[in-house]
Amino acid sequence: MKNFIDVHGAEMVFSTKKGRFHALRDIHLTVGKGEFVTLIGHSGCGKSTLLNLIAGLLLPTAGALLCDNREIAAPGPERAVVFQNHSLLPWLTCFENVHLAVERVFGARESRAQLRQRTQAALELVGMGHALAKRPHEISGGMKQRVGIARALAMEPKVLLMDEPFGALDALTRAHLQDELLKIVARTRSTVVMVTHDVDEAVLLSDRIVMMTNGPAATIGEVLAVDLERPRNRMDLAEDARYVHYRKEVLDFLYTRHGHHAVAA
Amino acid sequence: MVSAVFHSPLEAAAEARAAAREASGKPANPASVPVPAAVERAEPVAAPAAAAARVDWSGWALRLLAPLAGIALLVAVWALLTMRGSSFPTPAATFEEAVKVFSDPFYRKGPNDQGIGWNILFSLQRVAVGFGMAAAVGIPLGFLIGRFTVLDRMVAPLISLLRPVSPLAWLPIGLLVFQAANPAAIWTIFICSIWPMIINTAVGVQRVPDDYMNVARVLNLSEWKIITRILLPAVLPYMLTGVRLSVGTAWLVIVAAEMLTGGVGIGFWVWDEWNNLNVTHILIAIFVIGTVGLLLEWMLIGVARRFSYDNA
What we know:
By secondary structure, chain A is an alpha/beta fold. Helix content of chain A is 36%, strand content 25%. Chain B has one domain (2-24, 87-307): MetI-like (MetI-like fold), CATH 1.10.3720. The chains are: A alpha/beta, B mainly alpha.
């Protein structure tokens, strides 16, 4: 597998009003083309910061990040982000929200009809073909997140970056969207980097799980390769010995070896 | 500059919704947020489902009778105070005179004696010109100030210094520069009504959520798209609050300015009638000024509702 994203010795220090905050140190990570990698860790461990570095929304204070052998210096449509809180523009319909992205990426090359078709196809891919004319406040949280994913997928990005995309959803909706995501990723062969704090989600979706130590100055503690064949089915996996084993590995890292001192329960 | 936001009821409702959204991490149901009474005062108290079929008399009473009772009380007190006879006209006399004034609102008997309709229209025209120019300058300026911190820091002290200046202090400057009464009055409106629009627009731009700007960065949108698709819609509610405050200010200022500059206009009319010692007409003018101000306010609340994406 070709290295596609290469994080090399990245370090992130924020200068805040209270002084310098050392968020990340010495991060080395490579993601291959078509790979699904999740970043997991306790809250405040800097997993979102790492994702934002890959997105280019933040620039590292030291080290380098490459995407397809080019340095990441700014955000760009080839690294699409699905935000935790969907970040749809409330004054645009679902169609217009996705179209805004499609227009930017393909507008110079394709006709209007093609752009519209792309937008529609992206929304249908996430099962939102029925709500093209709805505005974000008229649809449920899960539907909003679907549209957010459609917006990211419609750009045909080289990498899909997802920042706890299902974090704000109820358990049933979340499971449903995870299954959908598995199908979509299988179909589009996308490279995905996803931040999560949900152990089951990480094991179910990932090829590799990147486990991060606690902040400040967090770094990558361990990387766990999840060797489960695809397509994966959550019902079958629930009793699969390997699944249970991987799950235990992650739990062991998070709670036994890097238990969050601030979290009592 | 942030300290200078003017909170309108509409804006407060939007903010409450935003806060609720942040707290729950999910979009709040707008209906679950208490709406400020000032805007939705007309809404009747929620009637129980069983009573839905019946006419909601208590709601009607509150909506219609209470305001009428307020007005009746004012007129009653006024009538009581003027009963003994004084230089102050009674309500009945004022009403009779008002009927006379409004029966022929558009007469012209020379430059200083024209109907009340003309006076209102001339005043509105000055307000429209002065306010229009203020909007044309103030809104783009507010956008620039909101978008560029350097500019904000540069003009913040100037705005703080100039904003509290009384309208009448600007009038001599206008007279000096324009050498004429009418442009001076328009200038006064311009300078007094520009501040709320600058400040609210700038604050609106500064408060555009980071999420939206991150979307713009990830999509790599052009500056034009950022302005038309993200900034403008996000800032519109703030901007309209500024516009509403500005129109209110402009209507306040015009009366004072016209008293000093003369010509045809409702302010001049008040002053002229004072010189004639026609107190009845002054009272009529006060009602007219209040009513026109109220109508302007209603009109702009209507516009603000139309463009608020929460109810769209």
